[in-house]
Design a protein that fits this description.
The chain is α+β, with helices and mostly antiparallel strands. It has seven helices and ten strands. Strand 6 and strand 7 form a beta hairpin.
Length: 227
């Protein structure tokens, strides 16, 4: 696992039982970005992007600073059909979906067309959703969920001005989420997997969400306040 202290907007979905092409079709990944797409990036509502990689026991979908498609319940429901099993995590200051009750952060596990368990990792002791709300616990064993304020030092040994008095607040629950995904996929998540732009693996996403094979309340085992 790498240092994620500085990553404030990210969504990851780790998918077992599907190949990259299958995942690409489900999530609505279209053409690759090109030099002629500057107008799309600079528009008032730029398109979401995603990078797909073969990783561990399956496929990793990464949206770094670009939307929450791969963590929305419609996407998880579509990926978790047939042989697909998916674990997703997301932290995003604009929220993820009205279907999650006010959460801006998410860790979720889905399989067999159902959400097994989902929680807000920044408040993990509170409400959980799903048909087996303890299903995430084995992946989170021993993890920390607290916040810690630590000093930040320059190479010369002098503090630099991040936060109060040259300090930064580390959200350990973010590391807990990545630990869960590493255990799920039986692989180490390296920075190159998340940040590298690989030809043929970076895509724009369509404007439409995947079609859920079941009604979202049924998928969640919950009656949400929106889609």
């Amino acid at each position: 696992m790498f240092d994620i202290t500085w990553i404030d907007l990210i969504c990851l979905a780790a998918v077992k039982g599907r190949d990259i092409e299958s995942v690409r079709q489900v999530i609505g990944a279209e053409n690759e970005p090109s030099s002629g797409d500057d107008a799309r990036f600079n528009s008032v509502t730029p398109p979401e992007g995603a990078m797909l990689s073969e990783w561990g026991d399956g496929v990793l979908v990464c949206q770094l600073g670009s939307g929450t498609r791969c963590a929305k319940p419609q996407t998880l429901a579509a990926l978790a059909t047939a042989r697909g099993t998916v674990m997703a995590t997301c932290w995003h200051d604009r929220g993820i979906s009205p279907a999650y009750p006010g959460w801006h952060n998410l860790l979720a596990l889905a399989a067999n067309g159902r959400l097994l368990s989902a929680l807000d990792p920044s408040n993990h002791q509170q409400q959980r959703l799903g048909y087996d709300t303890s299903a995430l616990d084995p992946y989170l064993a021993g993890a920390r969920f607290d916040y810690e304020t630590i000093p930040v030092w320059s190479p010369a040994g002098e503090t630099i001005g991040y936060g109060a008095g040259g300090s930064i607040v580390v959200a350990h629950w973010r590391y807990a989420c990545l630990l869960a995904i590493e255990r799920f996929m039986q692989a180490e998540l390296r920075e190159s997997v998340v940040r590298s732009v690989v030809p043929g693996r970076s895509f724009f996403l369509s404007g439409s969400l995947p079609e859920s094979p079941v009604p979202i309340p049924e998928f969640l085992n919950y009656s949400p306040g929106g889609d």
